[in-house]
Design goal:
The chain is α/β, with parallel strands linked by helices and 280 residues long. The protein has helices at 22-28, 37-46, 55-64, 79-87, 98-103, 118-125, 142-151, 165-169, 182-190, 201-206, 220-227, 242-253, 266-278, and strands at residues 91-94, 110-111, 132-136, 157-162, 178-180, 194-197, 213-214, 234-237, 258-261. Helix 6 crosses helix 7 (142-151) and helix 9 (182-190) crosses helix 13 (266-278). The protein is globular and about 65 Å long. 31% of the residues are buried.
């Protein structure tokens, strides 16, 4: 059923496996370790985190009975077809590796790299069941992208464009995202730069860089204009670079000069900061 899967935002225990036994869960599942009901309630509420907006649509889908996954492949689209679809409001989701997206992508597209939680972030960052065109490299799994989206109720995936090679050959414009190294972010932060941490509240509470702004990725589009100065360079960081790159498109489309630390995360920056302070 849509939404449900071990390791999702609503799960009781950690991710990484699809099967278990009653005995294993009794021994290892933290929810089964509470001594009484009051401790269970207090413990579960204390770790409650934001959950994807598409979840609101999953309950009704489960009650009515989800449709079977469609038995189809994604049709290939030409650059001209993609432009026409985009002109009528179809969303372009670029699922290529983050550095491919940064080097050049269809203007106004959303960069969410294809991996295990691709569907979750598409569902959280877009209007539910939006019409979508995907951009994928030839060596990426089209069916995987389609299945992830279908599983959360995104059934209007219109096709896929194979990379942006033909797009460039036909002379269509592209946008770029500047990527930076860890040292660049540390220098920017020490000079008072506008550094945004887009990790979850729990990750932020567990440790963050002093002087950074915290705006969770799903809130970035709404809060950026209220919190940030669009005239200042804006540096995005997360845990690995994945979510930072996904958020870059929102800020770019609102006129922010964006720079993304795409090859590491806050833990790397904290360590580097400590090392450089110690070397002074």
């Amino acid at each position: 059923y849509p939404t449900h899967g071990e390791g999702s935002f609503c799960t009781a225990s950690g991710a990484g496996k699809h099967t278990s036994t009653i005995g294993e869960e009794r021994l290892t599942n933290p929810v089964l370790a509470y001594p009484n009901e009051d401790a269970f309630v207090a413990g579960q509420l204390s770790v409650l985190q934001p959950y994807p907006t598409y979840y609101a649509h999953m309950g009704p889908a489960n009650v009515s009975g989800p449709a079977p996954l469609p038995d189809r492949d994604l049709s290939s689209l030409t650059p001209g077809e993609v432009r026409r679809l985009q002109d009528r409001g179809v969303l372009v989701v670029d699922a290529r590796p983050r550095y491919d997206f940064a080097d050049g992508h269809v203007p106004n597209s959303l960069g969410i790299e294809l991996r295990d939680d691709f569907g979750t972030w598409v569902g959280w960052l877009t209007e539910f069941d939006a019409e979508i065109v995907l951009v994928l490299n030839d060596d990426q799994d089209r069916q995987e992208a389609l299945v992830q989206l279908n599983r959360i109720g995104y059934d209007r995936v219109l096709g896929v464009m194979n990379g942006i090679g033909d797009w460039l050959l036909e002379g269509h414009p592209v946008d770029h995202i500047a990527t930076v190294g860890a040292e660049d972010v540390v220098v920017a932060l020490r000079s008072g730069g506008q550094v945004i941490d887009v990790r979850s509240p729990a990750e932020w509470d567990a440790g963050h860089l002093e002087g950074t702004h915290h705006i969770y990725l799903p809130d970035l589009a709404e809060r950026a204009a209220q919190t940030l100065d669009p005239a200042e360079p804006t540096w995005l960081v997360c845990a690995t670079g994945y979510r930072a790159m996904a958020g870059a498109g929102f800020l770019r489309d609102h006129g922010f000069p964006v720079r993304v630390y795409a090859d590491g995360g806050v833990d790397d920056l904290l360590k580097l900061g400590e090392e450089t302070e110690g070397a002074r």
